[in-house]
Structures are given as structure tokens and as C-alpha cells.
Amino acid sequence: MGRRFAGKVALVTGTAGGIGRATAIRLAGEGARVVAADRDRDGLARLADDIGPLTALVYDAANGDASAAMAREAVAAEGRLDMLVCNAGIYRRGHFEDIAREEWDAVIGVNLTSVARIVQAALPALREAQGSAVLLASTAATHGIAYAAHYAAAKAGIVALAKSLAVEFAPAGVRFNAVAPGRVKTGISAGLAPLERQDPSLLVRSPRLAGLTEGGEPDDIAGVIAFLLSPDARYVSGSLVSADGAQNVG
Ligand SMILES: NC(=O)c1ccc[n+]([C@@H]2O[C@H](COP(=O)([O-])OP(=O)(O)OC[C@H]3O[C@@H](n4cnc5c(N)ncnc54)[C@H](O)[C@@H]3O)[C@@H](O)[C@H]2O)c1
Domain for residue 211, yes or no? Predict the structure, then answer.
């Protein structure tokens, strides 16, 4: 594997499993020093077993102040920040009329507000390094998703955030992009019971690409994230890149 990120520092959130873990492994494999952040302490320890010594930070994305403090701690620990991947997220299902205020706030809090707070805290270091950030959206942001309107609304916010910051910080040389995965084989829906009274005809369609109709692998998304962070993407900012195996076209 090439060493596109030698000498660079990356903060990746949600690294205990799924896409975040695959991204941390890929960036470290290409030479980056990785700061791994998650609420799952054991998952962070398993990541360190696999990729060697790293700075691991336990934080709760439900808490905006804790999210910002985590980002400041990451910068302080490594002395610089070149790459930021805001990946931690939660998925919840519910009939829109049944979504309680607390559930709405929790989904927006983890998936959107925490991301904004982390970016704010990381910006001085990203400016200094002329760095780059990738924010994890979802195809739900652009296509909607039945029974998860709070999730889709948060992810649409992520797209708008990435595009707005790409413009605002272009003069500083900091790039912002968003990635929209379609279905990916991770544990994000584990433990969620099927909804009663759901209409199967409204449910999200499957990916169509041969060999990937059950969904992509986490590393399929990590590769896209790594590209966007790399010098090959130096002219790419404010983009939303979908990786969904042709799930949402046609
Ligand atoms: N898997 C998919 O099909 C899919 C599709 C579109 C978008 N996404 C997005 O990709 C990102 C990664 O999802 P994934 O599928 O790898 O999920 P995952 O559940 O496998 O991993 C999410 C990680 O975030 C961490 N996390 C969750 N809540 C947290 C909190 N409050 N504080 C700190 N850490 C927390 C979890 O511990 C976990 O390690 C998410 O933003 C998700 O919305 C996933």
C-alpha cells in the first residue's frame, strides 16, 4: 500500500466498528498517525490491537461540549491535525408521528450537532495544516428514507454543513467534503426491531451492482474517504460523493 499520509495526523470518530474502524485501519496503513474516538472503550482497544499504538479518546457524541473537548484533546495529544473524519453516528427507526422530542434531539445531537462542535474545535489546527475534513452523510440525505425522517434530516444537515464550510474556509485552504454511503454491512441497525405497521413498498431499495446487492463493505467507504483526504483530491471541496452500488439511480 502507498504512504499517502506519512507524517499526517487524522482524527476519526466512531472508530470502534464499521466504517470508522475500516477508515482508521486504512489511514494508518498509509502512514497516518490516527486518533481514534468513540464511546466504546473496548472497541477502541480492539482497534489498537490491530493497528498498533494510537491515541484513543472515549467521548459521548450525545454531548456537544464533550465532543468539542475530545477534538481539542486530539489536537493537544498529537500537536497537529491534518485530517478529520466525522463518522460516528446512530440510526433509529420510527413512524414520524411517533418520534418523541427526546428521540428527535438524540438523533440530531449525535449525527449533526456533535459534528459541528468537533469541526469548530478542530478548525484552528486544520487551518494551520491546510487540512481536509470528510463528514459522513447518507443517501438518506438526498433521497429521504421512510421511517427515519430524523436521521435523514440530520444527514441532510451534514451535506449543507460540508458545503457551507467548504466555501467559508476555501480561502484558508481547508477542504470539506461529504460522503453518502448507501447500504453498508455494519452493525448500525443491529438490535433495531422491525416497526409495526410498516409498508414494505416504502422501504429503501437494494444496491444493484453485481456482487454488492447485499450492501458494500466498510472498506468500500473507507477507500472513498481516503481518496477525498488525499492530495489526489486537492481540487475537490464541497462535494457530496455517493457510494451506494447504484442503489439510488434510475
Ligand atoms: N451502514 C450503513 O448502511 C450506512 C449508510 C449510510 C450512512 N452511514 C453512516 O456511516 C457512519 C458510520 O456508520 P456505521 O455503519 O459504520 O455504523 P456502526 O454502528 O458500525 O459504527 C458507528 C460507530 O459510532 C460510534 N458511536 C455511536 N454513537 C456514539 C456516541 N454517542 N458517541 C461516540 N461514538 C458513538 C459507535 O460506537 C460505533 O463505533 C454513520 O455516520 C452512519 O450514519 C452508514
Answer: yes
